[in-house]
Amino acid sequence: MCGIVGYAGHRAATPILLDGLKRLEYRGYDSAGVAVLDPEGCLAIAKAEGKLSRLVERLDGHQPIGVLGVGHTRWATHGAPNTVNAHPHTDSSGDIVLVHNGIIENYAALRAEMAERGHDFASETDTEVLAHLIGVEYDALRAGANGFRPLPHLFAEAVRRALKRVEGAYAVVAFHRDEPNLLVGARQFSPLVIGLGQDENFLASDIPALLAYTRQAMTLEDGELAVVQPGGVQVYTLDGQPVVRQPFTVTWDLAAAEKSGFPHFFLKEIHEQPDRLRDCLRGRITEGRVLLPELDGLDLRRVKRVRLVACGTAYHACLMGRTLIERWARLPAEAAIGSEFRYAEPMIDDHTLVVLVSQSGETADTLASLYLAREQAAQTVAITNVVGSTITRYADTSVYLRVGPEISVAASKSYLGQQSVLALLALYLAQQRGLMEADEAAEMLEALQTMPDEIEALLAHTDRVEGVARRFAHVRSFFYMGRGPNHPTALEGALKLKEISYIHAEGYASGELKHGPIAMLDPDLPCLAIATRSATYAKTVSNIQEVRARGAQVVALATEGDTEIARHAHHVLYVPATPEALSPIINTVPLQLFAYYVAIARGCDVDQPRNLAKSVTVE
Ligand code: F6R
Asked: Which residue's CA is the closest to the ligand 1 atom numbered 10?
């Protein structure tokens, strides 16, 4: 996720901006930049691809002088991670400077409109389009444009007007060369906080960027705009109404602030899943249809079957994805593990669509599978979180997860993103092939869109899962079982427990119990059974009874309102009702929390489990 810092005050802005960006490094980024304005209106912009240290080196000995400025670390969403696409961006006059975090959904239409008016664009970013749009509004206001004009500052009013035309998510900070004491910040679905100092004020994506300078802060809510000057801050709604907002005092230390107050990145990333899922879905469901313009270049009519390939957690997402593709799009689909696929002499040809799923986009076995698919003339789609990663350079096209950088070694939010994108892909293929009942498609789209709220509600009450997890912290082994689309959920739950608590765990399809694993069951092998509402619910209950009859403790994951299940299981964790096909998305969340609380009770290093690397770039 991009990081933003803005400063308006009396001290040299550049070191403050660079220091703030350093404090936001944990958010992940691929390029960085600053723009600083001196009181005479002299503007300096510096950008560098890669680490912040590259930008610092570039500025060594000639840091821009000025007491107002903005800084940005970019996590690419539109356009490759390079210096041209790095922020800040300017409008066509070069007088308006803008940094942005988020995704402007209608940027293509706005860009076309600006291009028609004769605007040239230096970068491929959606951000630059917004800078141009602000420039157009500013020029119109200067030329005496009429209409409702609620904000006292011309530039702030221009930003307000431009943002009224923008669809999507953003946190922006902008300034104009002619107004050297004024920063304008605004947000819609992306974070931006205000820091309040003595004759100086700040804007930042997150609190850590402010802590060296002030502990007094003020929130900016979605749909609000802040006019920030050294002597004060005024907040308005985007409709121009003044807002009265009380400041608050930040009590976190720096380490806690980077994790938004959570003790571990893994827990923070679990809790941010509702927002990240909103980011992932934003703009991809409109008027009852799935929009995936990334797939426009493919010839989908040629596709006779789909192969999904990945490793680890991403492979579990593929298992869910294959079920949905077969069920909805009626295309034969198979999921394969990268390290197997690459040596299996798989049957692929130009009628095969190969979908490679990788959070990092750098996993060696997944990349090797991609190269193989290309050699065999298959069409290829990468589903990844990292713009510009190797996988995106070789696949025919890429669909991004948009869940922001994942810092914890154990995957959490990327899994929910992968499941959601694969569900969208399955619905998109069904839509293209005209094979899905309209009612069912509408129900699934509705369920996907309400999923973030449901996960949010679930995450508001984690005491129960914590309490149950603590009871099992000292077991040697755990058995997970699930059916249908939740078989992969059982595999993922078991993988999470193994990875971060080092407890041996096995995930199984519930129906396989009698074909072997039942022999292991005894009072020392507890079982987590996924028993949410489904077509095979009754069979799952029978499986639970079989487990219980062997003296094993049972933790059931069930649908809210299911009181029956408590008669069969020793402990019940509840999730909101969701259609079975999409239930693996929400069902995963309690299993992540369960693994987390077991690991904590065992004193494990949750964010850096032993022997594991975040990205497996070797075989
Ligand atoms: C598990 C985990 C790994 C990764 C796997 C693939 O928590 O993180 O199993 O899912 O190494 O990584 P990517 O998705 O980067 O290809």
From this structure: 313
Structure tokens at 322: 């294959």
Question: If DSSP codes are grouped into helix, strand and coil, which group holds residue 310?
Answer: strand
Helices and strands in the chain: count of H runs, count of E runs: 18, 27
Please state, for a pLDDT cut of 90, what percent of the chain lies above it.
80
- The CATH superfamily holding the domain 3-257 is Aminohydrolase, N-terminal nucleophile (Ntn) domain (3.60.20.10)
Q: Going by DSSP bridges, is the β-strand pair 168-176/96-104 parallel, antiparallel, or unpaired?
A: antiparallel
Q: H helices within 291-437, ranges in order?
A: 312-324, 338-341, 364-375, 390-394, 413-433
First CA to last CA distance, the chain = 29
Write out pLDDT tens, residues 238-271: 999 999 999 988 877 777 777 888 999 999 999 9
User: Which residue's entry shows tokens 């309490």?
Assistant: 467
Residue 326 DSSP label: I
Distance set, CA 18 to CA 53, 69, 210, 591 (Å): 10, 11, 12, 39
Task: Decide: 170 and 134 in contact? Cβ < 8 Å.
Answer: no
Return the structure tokens found at 257.
């602030």
Any atom of ligand 1 within 6 Å of the Cβ of 386: no
Element containing residue 532 per DSSP (H, E): none
> Superfamily assignment of 268-458 in CATH?
Glucose-6-phosphate isomerase like protein; domain 1 (3.40.50.10490)
Please tell me the distance between residue 343's alpha carbon and the centre of ligand 1 in angstroms.
Answer: 20
What is the torsional sign of CA 563, 564, 570, 574? negative
**Among 516, 547, 528, CA closest to 475:** 528
User: Where does 461-601 sit in CATH, by number?
Assistant: 3.40.50.10490
User: Does the annotation mark 2 as catalytic?
Assistant: yes
Closest CA to 171 of 127, 209, 231: 127
In short, whether 499's Cβ falls inside 6 Å of ligand 1 is: yes
pLDDT at position 47 over 90: yes
Helix (H) or strand (E) segment spanning residue 98: strand 96-104
Kindly state the tokens that stand for 227.
Answer: 């006019």
Residue of 47, 13, 15, 14 whose CA lies nearest to 31: 47
Model pLDDT for residues 525-582, shown as the tens digit of each residue = 999 999 999 999 999 999 999 999 999 999 999 999 999 999 999 999 999 999 999 9
Q: Is omega for the bond preceding 88 within 30 degrees of 0, making it cis?
A: yes
Residue with tokens 């001196």: 38
Residue 249 amino acid letter:
T
Distance CA 220, CA 27 (A): 20
DSSP state of 284: T
For 51, list phi and psi in degrees, rounded to 5.
Answer: -70, 160
Q: Which atom of ligand 1 is nearest to the CA of 418?
A: 14
Give the orientation angle of helix 52-59 with respect to helix 13-23, to 10 degrees.
160
Start and end residues for every CATH 3.60.20.10 domain found in the chain: 3-257
Q: Please state, in angstroms and rounded to a whole number, the distance separating the CA atoms of residues 615 and 619.
A: 11
Amino acid letter for position 272: E
Asked if 353 and 297 count as a contact pair (C-beta separation under 8 A), the reply is no
| CA proximity to 525, closest of 547, 493, 497 | 547
What 3-state DSSP class applies to 325?
Answer: helix
CATH 3.40.50.10490 placement within the chain: 268-458, 461-601
The CA 492 to ligand 1 mean position distance, Å, reads 11
Ligand 1 proximity of 615 Cβ (cutoff 6 Å): yes
